[in-house]
Design goal:
The protein has 196 residues and is an alpha/beta fold. The chain is 42% helix and 21% strand. It has 6 helices and 8 strands. The strands form 2 sheets. A 4-stranded mixed sheet has the order 2-1-3-4, sandwiched between helices. It has a 4-stranded mixed sheet with strand order 6-5-7-8, with helices on both faces. It is globular.
């Protein structure tokens, strides 16, 4: 999280997700990216979009560090950055919107009948009120074979020895297990607070 940037929480305790849009001019591509982000802000709320022109010194340096870290071409513009993810402009608006929505998603891998999973769900009901931009998606490892493949790929990517349920994937991080709000909940809150 070397590039994390936070914004101040709102008076009621809700947190806005910070999304940065890197661009070099106000061309059609930048306007397309801007329109998708504006639509997300209107639909979800809880998002602050900061436009960063890479022709300006600090923005140019930050963009260069981000593209180097994520191994992208230096010319990759416009580029959306937030929640420890980058989203280059896609060929279609629909594909770009889908990638931006995934950036604002927490995937929770669960198993039906799991008491820890039920506790995590209860916690996430209140957690979602604090982070209105983050959408929680539950994937059941028993009934959803694609979820098993997906979580196994994440285990390898994040060098975890094994995975139990629930497992949380958010901000490019995989957190495994749930104890209670004061422990695991705090870890999730700490992770998201870097990006909000």
């Amino acid at each position: 999280a070397a590039f994390a940037a936070a914004v101040e929480p709102l008076p009621d305790g809700r947190r806005n997700v910070l999304i940065e849009l890197y661009h070099d001019d106000n061309n059609d591509r930048t306007q397309r990216a801007d329109a998708v982000l504006s639509k997300l802000v209107s639909a979800r709320g809880g998002i602050v979009v900061v436009r960063r022109n890479v022709r300006e010194g600090k923005n140019k340096t930050r963009h260069a560090a981000i593209v180097k870290h994520y191994r992208l071409p230096a010319s990759e513009l416009p580029l959306v950055y937030g929640c420890d993810n980058v989203v280059p402009l896609q060929d279609t608006t629909k594909a770009f919107q889908a990638e931006c929505e995934k950036l604002l998603q927490m995937t929770v891998y669960i198993r039906r009948g799991c008491k820890r999973c039920d506790r995590a769900k209860g916690f996430l009901n209140t957690f979602g009120k604090r982070y209105p931009a983050i959408r929680v998606v539950y994937r059941d490892l028993v009934s959803d074979r694609g979820a098993v493949t997906e979580v196994n790929r994440l285990v390898v990517k994040h060098r975890k020895r094994a995975v139990s349920v629930p497992a949380f994937y958010v901000c490019n991080q995989l957190l495994v297990g749930f104890d209670r709000a004061e422990t695991t909940g705090r870890r999730l809150d700490d992770l998201l607070s870097r990006w909000t």
